[in-house]
């Protein structure tokens, strides 16, 4: 599996119990959405290996999962720090005017006057709304991802148009 086919969804925090379960920090909107995928790719530094998902538990601050072939606490603990990825092709299609964060990262952001503000480096969840972190050299702009500001998202063109000033 190539790195560019995989989307990082979280990482292994350590062992959970003594029967080979792992504790997971999920970087998804709903932590248990990882349970929707039958095969997880785990790895470090681009060295990926598939694991079949067997069972999962939703915990207050994380999730726990049993992966096929991971038997015993030592095997689970050895996975600490591994990233968990899912092939992008397995994601369900988003609804119209909805986007996966991973698809927005790297897009160029322009004002409605066609001035380049930079590229989306990451997104943040603030509770009220999501925020685009747009970087241009040393300049970082935080732009609310709301209809009043984001006018268009053109994935194929690699651009987002926003109603946002240079001095905001």
Automatic annotation (TrEMBL):
Domain note: The PRC barrel domain binds ribosomal protein uS19.
Self-association and partners: Binds ribosomal protein uS19.
Function summary: An accessory protein needed during the final step in the assembly of 30S ribosomal subunit, possibly for assembly of the head region. Essential for efficient processing of 16S rRNA. May be needed both before and after RbfA during the maturation of 16S rRNA. It has affinity for free ribosomal 30S subunits but not for 70S ribosomes.
Subcellular location, record wording: Cytoplasm
Every RimM N-terminal domain range: 9-89
Source taxonomy: Bacteria, Pseudomonadati, Pseudomonadota, Betaproteobacteria, Neisseriales
Alphabetical UniProt keywords: Chaperone, Cytoplasm, Ribosome biogenesis, rRNA processing
Protein name: Ribosome maturation factor RimM
């Amino acid at each position: 599996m190539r790195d560019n086919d995989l989307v990082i969804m979280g990482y292994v925090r350590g062992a959970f119990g003594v029967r080979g379960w792992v504790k997971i920090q999920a970087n998804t909107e709903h932590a248990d959405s990882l349970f929707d995928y039958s095969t997880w790719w785990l790895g470090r530094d681009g060295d990926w290996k598939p694991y079949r998902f067997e069972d999962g538990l939703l915990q207050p601050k994380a999730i726990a999962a049993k992966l096929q072939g991971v038997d015993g606490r030592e095997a689970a603990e050895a996975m600490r720090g591994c990233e968990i990825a899912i092939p992008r092709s397995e994601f369900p299609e988003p609804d119209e005017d909805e986007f996966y964060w991973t698809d927005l990262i790297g897009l160029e952001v322009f004002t409605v006057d066609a001035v380049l503000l930079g590229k989306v480096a990451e997104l943040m969840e603030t509770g009220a709304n999501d925020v685009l972190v747009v970087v241009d050299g040393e300049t970082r702009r935080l732009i609310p991802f709301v209809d009043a500001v984001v006018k268009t998202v053109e994935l194929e063109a690699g651009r987002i148009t926003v109603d946002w000033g240079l001095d905001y």
